[in-house]
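Colleagues,

For the teaching module next term, I've prepared a clean inverse folding example: a structure given as tokens, and then the sequence designed for it. I'd like students to try predicting residues themselves before seeing the answer, so please don't circulate the second half yet.
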């Protein structure tokens, strides 16, 4: 385990980024892990986040703001991801990156794909306790668990969706 990705979308109005980064920093068993924090163009807590990161000593924290073209490369260079329960979970599943999803709002919480992909879905941010989050971090650090999640998400074959649909259409047309 070398790297954890933390990303809560382009806006993150609840500042989940700072909350969960703070919890990761408090986990001393993660002190040798590189933390990659991605914020989006509408993230309004940028100054507060930078002040927090600057106050942290002896930790590797990489802040990446407003990713435009290489999000998949950042994902692929991460061992696990902690993200909001939106579209990002589909990208992570397609890449086979074991993940923890946390919903920013009720609409996101109604999405169940992260569970289908084998990810840990913690539920609504406001209802996720610090202890539940840390317990889930401990679970996902287990290599066999990460491998199980990787295999399950890859088995969904999300990268070939267009070809699967084309094949189904051709199958129906030849009947």
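(Answer key — instructors only)
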């Amino acid at each position: 385990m070398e790297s954890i990705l933390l990303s809560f979308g382009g806006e993150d109005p609840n500042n989940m980024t700072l909350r969960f980064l703070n919890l990761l920093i408090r986990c001393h068993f993660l002190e040798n892990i590189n933390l990659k924090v991605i914020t989006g163009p509408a993230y309004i807590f940028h100054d507060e986040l930078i002040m927090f990161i600057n106050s942290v000593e002896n930790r590797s924290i990489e802040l990446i703001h407003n990713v435009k073209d290489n999000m998949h490369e950042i994902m692929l260079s991460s061992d696990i991801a902690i993200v909001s329960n939106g579209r990002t979970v589909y990208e992570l599943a397609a890449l086979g990156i074991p993940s923890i999803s946390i919903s920013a709002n009720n609409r996101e919480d109604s999405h169940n794909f992260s569970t289908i992909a084998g990810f840990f879905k913690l539920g609504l941010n406001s209802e996720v306790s610090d202890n539940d989050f840390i317990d889930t971090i401990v679970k996902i650090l287990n290599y066999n668990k990460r491998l199980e999640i990787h295999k399950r998400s890859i088995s969904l074959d999300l990268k070939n969706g267009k070809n699967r649909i084309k094949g189904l259409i051709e199958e129906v047309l030849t009947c």
